[in-house]
Amino acid sequence: MTVAELTKQLTAELPEKIKKLLAKQPMNPVELADELDVSPSKIDRAVRDLQKRGTLIALRPDGRYDAKHIAPERGDATHTLKDRGDGWQVFGITTDNHMCNRHSRLDVVNHLYDVFADEGVKTVYNCGNWIDGEARFNKQELLVFGMDNQLDYFIQNFPQRKGITTHYIAGDDHEGWYAQRECINIGRHAELMAQAAGRRDLVYLGYGEADVKLQIGDQSAVMRVMHPGGGSAYALSYAPQKIVEAFQGGEKPDVLLIGHYHKFDYCYPREVHIVSCGTTCDQTLFMRKKKLAAHVGGCVVKFKQDPKDGHIERFTVEWIPFYDRGYYESRFE
Questions:
Q1: Are strands 58-59 and 89-93 parallel, antiparallel or unpaired?
Q2: Which of 48, 161, 237, 262 is the most exposed place for a label (fewest CB within 10 A)?
Q3: pLDDT confidence of residue 190
C-alpha cells in the first residue's frame, strides 16, 4: 500500500474512530488528536463531516465535543397545500410501516399510494416507525439487519409516485433505537441516504414530533405530527385525549396526527382535530402477547381553511381499511 493509499484509508476511518470515542465521553479536539495521533484540524474536519451525515455531535461551552447527551431536533415546517380543484385541500397519511419486519404490509402501503394519486394527493405525512429497528424482542421477526441495511430496504421499497412528497418524523422507538445507540439523527441520515439514491420525495420533519404550519394566504393553522409513547388504553380516544389535555397553554395545535398506537380513531377534544393514523403492519408477536389489535390501513384527509384567519372550518377523515384474511393465512406458507 502506498503512502497516499494509507493516508486515504486512515482519513476514511477517522470519523468512525471519533464516534466511538465520543460515545464514551465528551472530548476536546486536542484530546481526540492525541488519542488518534492526528492534527486537531483533521479532527475538526472529520467532526464536520460526521455532522453533515447526521451524527449527533455538538460543541459544548467548555470546548469539548459531545455525542452522548445530544438529542435529535424537534422539527417545524410551513406547507401550503393547494386546493385540488374542488375547494378542498387534501393530504394522505401512512404511518407505523415497520418495514423490515416480516409482518409489514408492502401491498397495503403501495395500494395507499395508488389511492393517494387517484385522490389528487400531493403531500403525505408519516408519524414515524417507518422501519422496525433492532431490539432484543423483535430480532426473530426481522428480514433485514443493520441500520444502513434497513434504511436501504426502506429507500428501495417505500412507495414513490410522481408528484407526491412524503414528509416524515422519526419515532423515539424502532428507528429511534438506532438514534439512541449510534448517536445519529436517524431521520436526517435516512433523508441523506435517500437523496444519494436519487429520491427527493422523502423529506424529514423532525424527531418525535414536528409542527407544520398550514398556510393559506397570510394566515395559517398549526398541525402537529407526533409519535408519542406508552401503550394503548382500553378506549381508542383515551391516549389522544390525555395528550391534548397535557399540552401547555398556548401550544395546542389545530390538528394532531398521531402514530405509535397502530389504531385508527378521530376525536375532537379541546377543539383539536385528532387523527390516530393506524398502521401498515399486521399484528406482530409483541402485539399479540400484549393483546393489542392492529388497525391496518391509512387515511385521506380533506379540509378547508378560512382565508380571513386561517382556522380549520371543515375537516373530514377517510379511513381506508384492509381485511384480507386469506392473505394473512397463506403469506408464510
A1: unpaired
A2: 48
A3: 95
How does pLDDT run across 10-22, given as a tens digit for each residue? 456 888 788 778 7
Residues 56 and 80 reside in one and the same domain: no
Residue 45 belongs to domain spanning: 3-66
Judgement on whether residues 276 and 243 belong to the same structural domain of the protein? yes
Same-domain pairing of 84 and 56:
no
Write b or e for each residue in 285-321: b if 16 or more Cβ atoms lie within 10 A of its Cβ, otherwise e.
Answer: eebeeeeeebbbbbbbbbbebeeeebebeebebebbe
Contact 113, 161 (CB under 8 A): yes
Residue 2 near residue 10 (C-beta atoms within 8 A): no
User: How many Å from the N-terminal Cα to the C-terminal Cα in the chain?
Assistant: 51
Range of weakest confidence among 112-126, 189-203, 244-258, 283-297: 283-297
The 3-state DSSP class for residue 285 equals helix
Single-letter amino acid, residue 14? L
Kindly state whether residues 19 and 122 are assigned to the same domain: no
Question: What is the tally of structural domains in the chain?
Answer: 2
Per the CB < 8 A criterion, the answer to whether 316 and 301 are in contact is: yes
CATH number of 12's domain: 1.10.10.10
Which cell goes with 44? 475538526
Q: Are 172 and 229 in contact (CB under 8 A)?
A: yes
Residues 131 and 28 in one domain: no
Residue 160, sorted as left (phi over 0), alpha (psi -120 to 50) or beta, turns out to be beta
CATH number for the domain spanning 99: value is: 3.60.21.10
DSSP three-state, residue 170: strand
pLDDT digits (tens, 9 = 90+) for 75-101: 888 998 988 888 899 999 999 999 999
Phi-psi region of 264 (alpha: psi -120 to 50; beta: other; left: phi over 0): beta
Q: Can you name the residues that pair with 130 across neighbouring β-strands?
A: none
The burial class, CB within 10 Å (0-12 / 13-18 / 19+), for 323 is exposed
Q: Which long-range contacts (CB under 8 A, 24 or more apart) does 245-249 make?
A: 245/269, 245/270
